[in-house]
Structures are given as structure tokens and as C-alpha cells.
Amino acid sequence: MPGRELYGEEEIREVVDVLRRKVLFRYGFDRERQGIFKTAEFERAFAAFAGSRYALGVSSGSAALKVALEALNLPRGGEVVAPCFTFVATIEAIQEAGLTPVLCEVDASLNMDPSDLARRITRKTVAVMPVHMMGNACRMDEIMAIARERNLKVVEDACQATGVSFRGKKAGTFGDAGCFSFDYVKVMTTGEGGMVVTDSEEVYRQADWYHDHGHPHQPDLARGKEPRKRSGFNYRMSELQAALGIVQLRKLTEVIRRQKENKKAIKAALRTLPGISFRVLPDEDGEIATFLTFFAPKKAQAEAARARMAEMGVPPAVLDYWHFQANIESCGGSFPATKDLLDRMVTVEIQAAMDAAQVEKVSSALVRAGKEMA
After folding, report:
1. Which of 76, 165, 241, 247 lies at a CB distance of 3.0 to 4.6 Å from 98, suitable for a disulfide?
2. Helix (H/G/I), strand (E/B), else coil: 60
3. pLDDT given for residue 295 in this prediction
4. How far apart are CA 173 and CA 197, in angstroms?
5. Partners of 295 in the beta sheet?
6. Pairing status of strand 165-166 against strand 169-170
7. Residue 320 and residue 361: Cα distance in Å, rounded?
8. In what order do the strands lie in the sheet with 277-278?
9. Running DSSP on this structure, what letter comes out for residue 335?
10. Nearest C-alpha neighbor of 18 from the set 2, 47, 41
11. How much is the pLDDT for 8?
12. 131: DSSP letter
């Protein structure tokens, strides 16, 4: 994904600005930092971008998921329904928060299947964690209706979906909290880093306290004199991460525009291929075009297409073990509908920095691979 493609002088200047003040910690040291608080600045900018009341910078997307769950103070052992197709961090965060992950199928959007979600809910269910996979929004209208009808909390995993929207509203802002990742292979990157957003003051306060050992962050008290508000741990974002985030966020709209343009051109070349079907996009205007995905009629055809792509120097994305099998190893269960989709899936990463020649190379490789499936 393109965040790493577009590092430039702007990022260097922001990082050097932090280093010159010699304060990499987000709290305190007011005199040395001359009133410059990069993490707080990044949080304000991201909250405005997402359309949320509050944003909290944390050390990673995985940390964002854990912090959000802990902020809700859910009963230990309660079940959280999540899709079986998601990066392992989704499941790990649920387990690390003392909760029990329950997997459900995905549909042709490769996101949580609302009908299967409804079937997986039991009297032990306390929350739902939809995942906006690969830059594509979940069916949040249906998911929120199910969750609200059953009085369940909703934590959105938007770690692969910064900038995604569904019917004009940003992914991550539908539920009680939303989580984002800025690691090295995300649409915007701070190397590592993440963000929790919420409209709830109470959820924000709990998250803020939890992510910093229970510190209440009272401006009138020295850090060493603050009373502890709750149990917590260290998931703080550094000033260096935030400095990168400030610049990368400014670039994000243009990054998404370029990705959409490149994906549109490649997808147009594939429309003549017989037998394939494209991934379902619940809101095509709202996706961020980080991937192009189509399904072959049969598993063997998809395998042949992926092999041909690799031979032509356009390697397909690999999204099986760490995003599916490892979750089943952790949680158990059988998910035939999802397995069938993944077996027949052919996916290529879209880059913002592609030039016309690269777009043509990817298009040609996909078309030739697709024709050989017949």
C-alpha cells in the first residue's frame, strides 16, 4: 500500500522538527518542546478527517484494537463476534482483552456476512467487531441494526481502511469505537502506530487512561503526582510517529484519488474476461482502491491465474494463512463459504505511485492470466 511509496522531504522536516527539540515523549517537558505537541496535533487532525469527536494516538493498530476493547470495560469471558477472514491481530486483541472470539463467515465483499453474524450471536455475546478488509466498507447499516437490536457494543476494525466511507460516513465512526493502523504496509504509514476514534467522552477517557498505565493526564498536576484512574498498560504513540502521521494524513486524499484512477484503468481491462466476478463493493465510491480482487469460477483456475501472474512479474496478494487459517487454529470452526471465496480469489495490490507503463503491465498480466483460466 502506498504510504511507504510517498515518503519525502515533508516527512523529513517534521521528524527533524521533533528531534531538534529532543522530546520524543508525547507528555510533559513543556519548556524543552516549546509548546509543540505533535501527537495531540495529529489526533486533532485525524478526528476532523474521520468526523469523530475524539481521537487517541497509540503505538500500533493492534494496540488500537486492544485499547478500544478495554475502554468498553466488557465482562471478562464475554463473546465478541468477528469475521473469520481478518488479520490475526483482530482475534489476538479480543483474546488479550480477556474476551472470547467467535468467528463468522464473510460474503462476496470479503467482509462480515450480516446474516451469519446474526446466527452466531448467543446470550454470551457482548460485542461485534466488523472488519473493513482491504480498503472496502462492511455493510454497516445491517451490522449496526443487528447490534443495536441486541444491545451489543461495536468496535470497528478499520486498520486496513483509513479513508474508507460507507454512504458518506467514514469507516470507524459507526460503532462505539473505531481502530486504525499506520504500519509500514498501510495506505498511510508512521512506520508503526494506530488510532482509536469515538464520539463517546466516556469511551475516550477510558481509552486515554488505559493506554498510559491509568494516568488521567491532568494539566495542573505533574505526571508523577497524578492519581491512577484505572489499570492499564503502555500503548502510547511517540512524537516521531505523530510527526510522520501529520504529513501522511495531508497526502491521503491525493493517495486515494491516484489509487482509484489506477484501479479503474486496470479493472476496465478485465471486464472482457469471461466467467470472472469482481469483489462486491457495498459502497464503490467509498472504497479506497488498495486492492483489485476478482473470483474465478473454480479453485484450480484461480491457482493457474495466480501462478501466471507471478511468472509475469505481477505477484498476487497472499491473504490466506495469516488472515484465515491462523484464526481458525485459534478459535476453531468450519467456514466453507469463506474458504470457497478465498480459494477462487485473485488479488493484486494497487499502488498510488504506478505510472502508465506499470498500469499497463499489471493490466496485461491479469488479462493473460484470466484468459488462461478458460
Report:
1. 76
2. coil
3. 96
4. 7
5. 277, 345
6. antiparallel
7. 25
8. 277-278, 291-295, 345-349
9. -
10. 41
11. 85
12. B
- Beta-carbon contacts of 359 under 8 Å, excluding residues fewer than 6 positions away, are 262, 265, 266
Report the 10 Å Cβ neighbour count for 308. 20
Strand ranges in the chain using DSSP code E only, listed in sequence order: 54-58, 79-83, 100-104, 125-128, 153-157, 165-166, 169-170, 177-181, 194-198, 277-278, 291-295, 345-349
Evaluate the CA torsion angle 204, 205, 208, 209 in order and state its sign.
negative
- Reading the block at residue 267, the C-alpha cell is 479493472
Question: Buried (b) or exposed (e) across 226-235, using 16+ Cβ within 10 A?
Answer: beebeebeeb
Q: What's the whole-number average pLDDT of the chain? A: 95
Residues 6 or more apart from 305 whose CB is under 8 A from it?
A: 296, 316, 346, 369, 370, 372, 373
pLDDT value at position 374?
A: 62
Rounded to the nearest 10°, the torsion over CA 253, 255, 261, 262 is -160
